[in-house]
Amino acid sequence: MSTLSSRENWSRRAALLRPSGDNFIDGRYVAAQAHGRFDSINPSNGQLLAQVARSQESDVDLAVNRSLQAWRDRRWRGLAPRQRMDVLMRWADLVEQNTEELALLETLDMGKPINDVLGIDLPEVTRTLRYFAECIDKMEGSVTSTAPGALHLVLHEPLGVVGAITPWNYPLLMAVWKLAPILAAGNCVVLKPAEQAPLSCTRLAALFMEAGGPAGVFNLVNGLGPEAGRALALHPDVVKLSFTGSTTVGKLLLTYAGQSNMKRVALETGGKSPQVFLPDLYDLDAAVDRAIGGIFDNAGQVCNAGSRLLVHRDIHDAFVARFTSRAPQLYRPGDPLDPATTLGPLVSQAHRLKVQRCIERGIAEGARAVVMGEALSGHLEQGAFLAPTLFVDADNRMSIAQDEIFGPVATVIPFTNDDEAIALANDSIYGLAASVWTRDLNRSHRFVRDLEAGVVWVNCFGDGDMTQPFGGYKQSGNSRDKHMMSLMSYTQTKSAWMATT
Description:
By secondary structure, this protein is of the alpha/beta class. The protein is built from 16 helices and 21 strands. A 7-stranded mixed beta sheet has the order 14-15-16-13-12-18-19, sandwiched between helices. Strands 9-8-7-10-11 form a 5-stranded parallel beta sheet, sandwiched between helices. Helix 10 links the parallel strand 12 (274-277) and strand 13 (308-312). Helix 2 (57-72) runs parallel beside helix 8. The radius of gyration is 23 Å and the shape is globular.
């Protein structure tokens, strides 16, 4: 944990930062070949942070070629498992040693409160790196039972050059959820971080080299999605693409895979997660506080945000009253560099306007919006801040209940019985996560069985560790992050049948 404890200290440290927005290819920072750049803007005040490389197809081709060369000469996959493990462990150590710099880059670039980065994101980054480092020498093949004259081996091998396109809401963590298993499996990787918040990932690439990672194994290209992201998805030497982001872009990437080399595409594409509150829950106050965190953490910019609050009619009014009372106490907007801030801005003014339009559409459809926050004043008026909003008098057919808003907006929908709750929860194109709150064991088992979601929480929301596979059903995607199965998804099997007589 950092020793900087005040907004003034963090601001002084931030003023000294000189972040690089260049690409990181073959072990060094390089500008885009056409020298194009775009601005990285601090969403809390609209000020310029850095100019970032606007990579084109030629830059992506260079990065992939360098990774392909590293793949072919086996400089990474040819290392003993313990050697690769040591590199990832040193990488985790370097993340810890550079905590202040990485936290500042994340906060300034994305708007996340500094204490959230320090207390949540960066510890999870190091846990992820160490977990997959520890998995490296735990990967095993098998020897099958065959006739006496044959020996049959099933081997797991890395894929080759993998492309990763990562989102802006948890820039470092979502990148490491992909990078760690990709590299642990022995692959080389080209990362295209989100253009809205690329600076912390750009620094992370250099730390891999400092940890002893060979040049060319991990390359990074900055740029815009329709340019650099498209080029990476279409590249014929990329054998797999891993993406976290919107469903719309995910579908486009599947098309690019078919147009190029039929590369594998792993998708985690968002959600509209229901939280179901039954009348026999243990503690209404505790449940409401967790419900508030489930949607307003990270200003609602969370793929599994619990934005649909399905509340039994018997507790509906009490639930809404507690929610509207507690939310303004728990989530107050402020300068993200102030350790007391609990609600930062949205990632950009463009995204704030998009979320505001969703709110206006919900009101036009007949729902009632309860805005929980005070009018912004002073320097906050220059930022992309948005007060938390709760919709009541809503139903599941409204856009606010069906569309992924990706902001601090929740919708309460009442129900009468368990069958109705399950039907409402599943009435969505998404299926990333869900929760149910009840003290009845049989009831909880039924909801776990019948909810169409890749992650289901009972009497909690957002809990878990690295042993928990994370990914969804339906249009929430087709992959799983975390867990050993993520590591294995970046391998391919080889059957070796040997005649012994």
